[in-house]
């Protein structure tokens, strides 16, 4: 299988790196689509992986900013930020054919729908990940947490290819699961990341600081309650104790951990506000669900 990964940051770099390490000598071919200094460093020195299980350097079959150089690929894994999604998949058009399957692995729950509008004839899977990893500097991926799970699936996809992909991922040391209930799985992740991303950004605090303050934790519980109500109104079936599950997950993260959206706000750059907070506000409005805390924080963060 020919697999290309676009967006060689924390997520794409980690999973792409694991694939490149395993399949350096085949049988599968792994391509990185990267830009700028990241592309240059990886081409010259490889991608350095600083993981919880050790450090190593990997070399993909090719790293390029020009997707036409990879040729047609069987699987395109899209790991860009939500605000870059459309631009990234359009730029990848030269390596996409009718038979190319596209798997988005990014925050939010609307990526598959957005990609399908651009490539309506292609099979677009759904996916989500739990991973604490970042691009520390060009050519260097740093993993700082012990959670590293990948879920993917599709209600209408080729089951044989999904099972094959699960084995390819697993053989590369990736904790990957082909989920037959991927919509619910993805929403479970969304109920985790949306409130914590919104609150860390709004309060400008990391995870430890949130739980060290009674009022901050109270706001977190309010956000979790509101997004749970939206999910239920949207027909999403979730575990009854989903809020407690997510609180436990958040508490288990390293104390200094924050969210990528919070990091982007601190840098003063583009953020995933629309995908992680605005989406909840808009969906709640269409479903006539009251989300006053989400509305307030979205308004403040947007301005």
Give a description of the structure.
The structure is a single chain. The protein is 47% helix and 21% strand. The chain contains 12 helices and 11 strands. Helix 5 links the parallel strand 10 (140-153) and strand 11. The longest helix is centred in the middle third of the chain and has 22 residues, at 182-203. The protein is globular. The model has no long low-confidence stretch (mean pLDDT 95).
Describe the main β-sheet briefly. Answer: 6 strands, parallel
Shape: globular
Radius of gyration from CA coordinates:
19 Å
Alpha-carbon distance between the two ends: 46 Å
Strand content: 15-25%
Write a brief structural summary.
The chain is an alpha/beta fold. Helix content is 47%, strand content 21%.
Structural key phrases:
303 residues; alpha/beta; six-stranded parallel β-sheet; five-stranded mixed β-sheet; 11 strands
Topology (elements, then pairings):
Blueprint: E1 2-6, H1 10-22, E2 29-33, H2 36-45, E3 47-51, E4 54-58, E5 62-64, E6 75-78, H3 85-91, E7 101-104, H4 111-118, E8 123-124, E9 126-137, E10 140-153, H5 159-171, E11 175-178, H6 182-203, H7 207-211, H8 214-233, H9 242-252, H10 260-267, H11 273-287, H12 292-302
Parallel strand pairs: 1-2, 1-6, 2-5, 3-10, 6-7, 7-8, 10-11
Antiparallel strand pairs: 3-4, 9-10
Helix pairs in contact: 3-4, 6-8, 6-9, 6-10, 6-11, 6-12, 11-12
């Amino acid at each position: 299988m020919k697999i290309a990964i676009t967006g060689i940051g924390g997520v794409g770099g980690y999973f792409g790196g694991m694939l490149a390490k395993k399949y350096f000598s085949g049988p599968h071919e792994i391509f990185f689509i990267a830009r700028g200094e990241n592309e240059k460093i990886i081409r010259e020195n490889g991608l350095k992986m600083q993981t919880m299980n050790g450090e190593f350097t990997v070399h993909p079959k090719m790293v390029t900013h020009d997707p036409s150089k990879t040729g047609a690929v069987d699987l395109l894994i899209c790991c860009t930020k939500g605000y870059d999604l459309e631009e990234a998949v359009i730029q990848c058009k030269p390596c996409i054919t009718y038979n190319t399957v596209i798997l988005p692995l990014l925050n939010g729950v609307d990526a598959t729908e957005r990609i399908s509008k651009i490539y309506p004839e292609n099979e677009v899977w759904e996916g989500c990940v739990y991973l604490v990893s970042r691009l520390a500097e060009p050519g260097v991926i740093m993993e700082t947490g012990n959670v590293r799970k990948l879920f993917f699936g599709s209600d209408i996809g080729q089951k044989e290819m999904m099972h094959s992909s699960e084995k390819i991922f697993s053989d590369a040391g990736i904790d990957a699961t082909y989920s037959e209930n991927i919509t619910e799985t993805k929403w479970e992740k969304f109920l985790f990341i949306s409130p914590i991303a919104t609150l860390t950004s709004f309060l400008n605090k990391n995870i430890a600081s949130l739980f060290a303050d009674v009022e901050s934790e109270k706001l977190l519980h309010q956000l979790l309650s509101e997004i749970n109500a939206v999910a239920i109104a949207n027909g999403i079936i979730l575990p009854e104790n989903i809020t407690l599950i997510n609180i436990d997950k958040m508490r288990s993260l390293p104390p200094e951990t924050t969210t990528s959206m919070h990091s982007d706000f601190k840098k003063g750059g583009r953020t995933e506000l629309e995908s992680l907070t605005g989406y909840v506000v808009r969906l709640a409005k269409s479903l006539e669900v009251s989300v006053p805390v989400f509305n307030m924080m979205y308004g403040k963060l947007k301005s």
